[in-house]
Amino acid sequence: MGIVVQKYGGSSVADAESIKRVARRIVETKKAGNQVVVVVSAMGDTTDELIDLANEVSPLPAARELDMLLTAGERISMAVLAMAINDLGHEARSFTGSQAGVITDAEHGRAKIIDVTPGRIEAALADGAIAIVAGFQGVSQTTKDITTLGRGGSDTTAVALAVALRADVCEIYSDVDGIFSADPRIEPRARKVDRISYEETLEMAAQGAKILHLRCVEYARRYDMPIHVRSSFSEKEGTWVVKAEDVTKDGTMEAAIITGVAHDRSQAKITVVGVPDKPGEAAAIFRAVADAAINIDMIVQNVSAAATSLTDVSFTLPRGEGQTAMSALDKLKATVGYESLQYDDSVGKVSIVGAGMSSSPGISARFFEALSDAGVNIEMISTSEIRVSVVVAESQVEDAVRAAHAAFDLGSDEVEAVVYGGTGR
Question: Which residues does the UniProt record annotate as the domain ACT (predicted)?
Fold first, then answer.
């Protein structure tokens, strides 16, 4: 018997009827001759509601206690799902992240998985039971406290368990039928991608596509675990995330030049104006940002003006961390000697991603021409071997996505994308 790990997102288990539907799908997988391990997220908007509750009680909730609170959502899901499966005549056993052997570091709110020791899961499978695991959570190796894994934590839990159990596949269920060439809310003719490489998926995730989280894909790539992204609301074949050489089934076809268009509206831009053009100044700026535990994305430094020997340095970062970064940089003004800081939180990022672009000249030109024809102004540019990203005004993000999608003929002849649960997650 093969092992299948399935993960169901919050919209898939949003209410009692949804849970019963998911239970029937799980039982069907079991009847097909598989051993089944299921990872569940909290029901619907439970996590957001718990965060709101914590903020009402305390303006700055203690990180340890917040983790203890937030893990309650997944524990509810796992218990009621196990009940639904038991009512269908199959034994199901529910486990918290710590009971499932998910061992993490001690960083509350964004813990990283150190190890997975799934002894109790293996015992349940050996007894013929279906194992239901609470996603998004683990236990610290050092403090023994309950921890949460942060955004996309349930996806990461599922892949980590699949690797530890040597599963055949990790199935990630949400409320869309797979990974699409663009967000179907913006581009209704977005095409479902049948197979996509880990590397392309990583770029799509990093540039704002929300169907899979970055850490989950990194884990899968490291251990070569196939991911099947599909909908819990339909029986359609989804998108397979696999090694690059497995993207084309016959091994002879070349990959599409551009796989998809991703966008991110959660960006902000900071410009440090009038930085002295001498060694060490840029290092001081980015050390201050790093010490504030802020991840930055694009960086652009202008050529210094000959008359003043001053330059401007711009970079993008998550919008939620913008004011923290501004405070950290403000403390540097006397030592670095820059003239001023500019902050813009009305920007967005649009990216084209595709393994085929590395051997296809003219991709950037076609992308920029499409944006120009759509009247979209480019503020910053960043590239990798399989990605070109631009920062534009937030108000122009949707125009940019549609223009890029059309420029590379990514659309389907008919509407393929259906968001069954209303969130796309």
Answer: 270-346, 352-425
